[in-house]
Amino acid sequence: MTIGNGNLNPDRLFSSDPSTRKISREIYQTIENLPIISPHGHTDPLWFSNNKPFPNPTNLFLTPDHYFFRMLHSQGINLDDLNIPRLDNNNFLAEKSVWKKFMENYYIFFGTPSDIWFRHSLSAVFDINEEPNLGNADIIYDKIQTKLQNINFRPRALLDRFNVEVIATTEMALDDLVYHKKLKDEDMIGKIISTYRPDDVTDPDLSDFEKRLEEFGLITNENTFTWKGMVNAHRIRRKFFREYGATATDHGFSSFITEDLNENERQTLLDKALNNKLTKEESAIFKGQILMEMAGLSVEDGMVMQIHTGSYRNYDNQLMIERGPNMGCDIPICTEFTNNLNKLLNRYGHSRNLKIILFTLDETTYSRELAPLAGYWQCLRIGPPWWFYDSPNGIKRFLNQIVETAGFYNLSGFNDDTRAFLSIPSRHDVWRREVSNFLAQMVVEYRMNQNDANKVASDLSYGIAKKLYNLN
Fold this sequence. Notes:
Layout: H1 18-31, E1 36-38, H2 45-50, H3 57-62, H4 66-74, H5 95-104, H6 113-126, H7 137-148, H8 155-161, E2 164-168, E3 171-172, H9 178-185, E4 192-193, E5 196-197, H10 199-202, H11 209-220, H12 227-242, E6 248-252, H13 263-274, H14 280-301, E7 304-309, E8 311-312, H15 317-323, E9 331-332, H16 342-348, E10 356-360, H17 365-374, E11 380-382, H18 392-406, H19 424-444, H20 450-468
Parallel strand pairs: 1-2, 2-4, 3-5, 6-7, 7-10, 10-11
Antiparallel strand pairs: 8-9
Helix pairs in contact: 1-19, 1-20, 6-19, 11-12, 12-14, 13-14, 17-18, 18-19, 19-20
């Protein structure tokens, strides 16, 4: 990546064994400066559309990064003291005082990937090499703040500096894509693209589901109170998203099933959903049938399906009430793929136009289910380690459990899946270093020659993701 290294050790994360470390370094040098493909994430398209300076270090580093404020919360620090937004729009503290609270407690991140990402950002992006702590808080804050006023630190300039070839944001089905419209007018679509996430109109457990479906019908000119009309509304909306670069869809579940119901059964479920009369079991069936419909639409239009599961979302009821959804309190839970994908795979699994990327927070499924499934079904690919596991040890565990059965080419490369913009190059760098480590170990064990290892490293860092997400 075309950013500096500051005082970062060039051999960080590499093996402590000298012979393995040497090969790790050699493999890494072939991929270090490859462009970043970021095909799934949650950065704010407003940043790139308006291209205004980030207001201050707190808003840049702390506010959007769940990893930071959830860990601070675990140590008893009130989220109000960190300026984490509330739904009631309470007054905020001065940003610099929040930064000092962050730096005062920075030691709690030692040993975590957050520490790796943050130090990488300070050193490589801002050329700041002071130790993060309360004593240096003002120095670090002021240095960052000064550089943020420079045109070279605006969002689009940083995309170029990070060597980002493509970055995808994620928007809900009812989103008007107003920021992407501006980007399209400025010929930025292609570098910055959207992703279609229809959960706001496919989850009957959400409040105001009937109202949401009614709005969905209005913007697509379809009767979304009929199953056929609802599915066609998705067909229309997906086409709209593709006008703004979208090549993928995203679907989030704590757990999921797939269903293949007849037309009358589907309409009966929808009628119950509209009247808020679904049982818990019927709600799961409803969502399972929706997933089947989304697969069918992907067979039609070629959009890549991403399924994220194994996460108990919004676990803290008080946090949900005070600050809304998707505020960092997601907890890994058990999930299941083999039985739950059976109906979908037996209906659409042999289609050459379907690609499904499976993400999970349940690491126990890696070798037991995901690797064997992806090692057989041509439509399946395994998403990279996600949420808690896109870390050095998480990547090691992932590769060790997956590759023997699924190989390298049933993986999907890497995506950073983050709201924290400045952590993107560091996350990709950690992936590339751990891939280099893994391959170097295979080379020293004479399981692979180094030329082949170099090719695999390049594909895992760049080529596979670009091809899989249809970004050519």
